[in-house]
C-alpha cells in the first residue's frame, strides 16, 4: 500500500478519483491484461472490443475488485485476473444489451452495433465472455469461479425477466427489485466478493464485501433509473425518457402507476414503450412523477441501499481504503441531486 | 458397462443408435441435469430453452463426452456435468447463430427467435452459457474448465471470422479450415477431451480423444456444408442453397471460385449472399460445382478427417466403445453419399 501514502489525496477530492488513485498501480496491470485478452487474429474482434472497452467507462467494477483485495492486504495475486474478467463480463453484457434495447448510443458515442452491426456485437460479446472465463480459470480458484459463473447466469436471467416485464403495467416494486438485483447488483457483489477472496479475506470479510457490492449496485441502478428521467430535479435533457420509450418498468413508473388516477395512468400507458414518444409526452409523464414524488422516492430507496452498503463495512478495521469505499457509495447516490 | 452386454445390438445397426444404446444410462442422468438446470423463476427461460433442447437434436456432443469417459472406465463422476455443460454451450451457440444468420427454421420447426424473438434468444443463450459454466465449476476440475472455457472463446472467435468472411470471394481454403475448426470442431474436441479426463484417461488418452473429436468435428462440418448443396448427388431439395443465400464461404464455393471461368465466377458472385436467390440461380451454381467436382472434393476432404479421427483411436485398447466411436465417424461421413 506504499503507493497510497505517496499520493494520498485531500479528502475533498471526488471519491471515485481517490479510488482511481488508490488502485492506479493494480489497474495498470488490469488494463494491460484487458488489452492482451481482447487480441485475436480476427481483426474485427479487437477492433470492436477495444472501441467499447476504451470508450471512457470508469471501470468501476474492476476497480472495486482490486480495491477489495487491497482492503485485505493482497492485490498482487489473482485480483488482477478477476478484475479483468469482471470488466469483460460487464462489456459483454453491454454489447448484448445494446442489441436487445436497440440502443444507438453508448457512453456518448455510437454504440458498437451501429458501427459493426448487431451480429458482430452478439458474437464479440460471446467472445469476451469466453475470455472472461479463461482468465478466471487460470487462477485455479474454484470458489471464486463459482461466484462469477453464478453471477453470469443470474445477470442473463435478470435481463430476460426485465424483457418479459417490458411494458407490463402490473409490474410490482418487488419485481423491479429483483430485476435490478439480478441485472446490476449481482455483478457488483461478485466483483467485490472475489476481490476480497483473492485478497485473503476470511468468510466474514468476503460476506461483508459481497454485501457492500450488492447494496452499492442496487443504489447505483436506482440512481441511474431516476437519472433517466432527469434525477431529483426532473430536468429534461438529452436522452431523458429513454427508459420510458423502451417500455422499461423502473421504480419511478411503478410508483406513479400505483398512485395515479385513471386518466394519469392512461397518459403513462400511452407513452410507455412508444419509441417515438415526443418530449412533450415524456414531460407529461414526468409531471405525474412530480405529483407523486416518485423520483425522490426512488432516490430515497437508493439512499437506503447506500446506507446498507456502508453499514456492511462497519465490522472491518478502519483504513484509508475503507473510507474511500464508503465515500464512493455516498458519491454514487449524490449524482442525482 | 453391464447395460451394454444386455442390449448389445447387432453391428449392422446404425452406429449412432449403438452409441445411444451404450450411453443410455448416463444420458438419462445428463438429460435430467439439463432439465434441472434449464429451470428459472423467469418463465420465458425454461420455455425457450426447453423448446430448443427438446426439439429432437441427437445430443451427439454430450453422448461423446460420456462415451469418452466410459472408454476409460469411469462415467459416474464428472462426465455427466461436463456432458450437460457441453450441450448447453452448443444450444447457446445455436440460439445466437439463428439470430446472426436470421434463420427461420431449426431442426424442422420454427427457430426459437421466430417464437420468442431475437432479444429473448440472445439473453437465454447467455443464461445457458452461464449455467454451463456453473455446472463445470461444480466439478472443481480446473484443467477441464480450461479446455471448455477456451473452446467457448474460440467458438465465438470462429463465428466472428465467418461473419467477417461472409461474401468475401477471396476467402481461401485455409480460411475455411480455420472457420470450421473454430466454430464446430473445437467443441467436439473439448467434449471428447473432458470426457476422457473425467473418465480417468492419462495424458496420451486425453490427447487421443481430443484429436478424435477435432477430426470428427471437421469431417462433420465438411459433410454439412456439402449437404447444404444436396451432398454428393447435388440433388436440390428443401433448404438447399441456404449457405449460398447467406453468403457463407464454404469449401464447395471456394473450390469452385478457384477453378471457375470469369463468367462462371460472375454467376456465383451474383447469387452469393442474395437472400432471395431463386432455385434456378442456386441450380446454376450447383451445376458449376458439378463441373469442377467441388461437392465430391469437399466430401473427400471430410473422408481425410474421418480417417484421421479413426487413426487417433488406434493406440487405445480394443473395446466395444472404441468400435462404436470409429463406426460413428464412418456413419457421419456416409450421410452425404
Structure description:
Two copies of one chain form a homodimer. Chain A is built from 17 helices and two strands. With 337 residues, the first copy, chain A, is mostly helical. Chain A has one domain: Farnesyl Diphosphate Synthase (Orthogonal Bundle). Chain A has a two-stranded antiparallel ribbon. In chain A, strand 1 and strand 2 form a beta hairpin. In chain A, helix 3 packs across helix 6. The longest helix of chain A has 26 residues. The first copy, chain A, is globular, with a radius of gyration of 20 Å. The N terminus of chain A is likely disordered. Chains A and B meet through helix 6, helix 8 and helix 9 of A and helix 6, helix 7 and helix 8 of B.
Write the layout of secondary structure elements.
2 copies of one chain form a homodimer.
Chain A: H1 2-7, H2 15-22, H3 24-37, H4 44-53, H5 60-71, H6 79-100, E1 105-106, E2 109-110, H7 112-116, H8 118-139, H9 142-165, H10 173-198, H11 203-227, H12 242-245, H13 251-259, H14 262-271, H15 279-291, H16 294-312, H17 320-334
Antiparallel strand pairs in A: 1-2
Helix pairs in contact in A: 2-5, 2-17, 3-6, 4-8, 5-6, 5-10, 6-8, 6-9, 6-10, 8-9, 9-10, 10-11, 11-16, 13-16, 14-15, 16-17
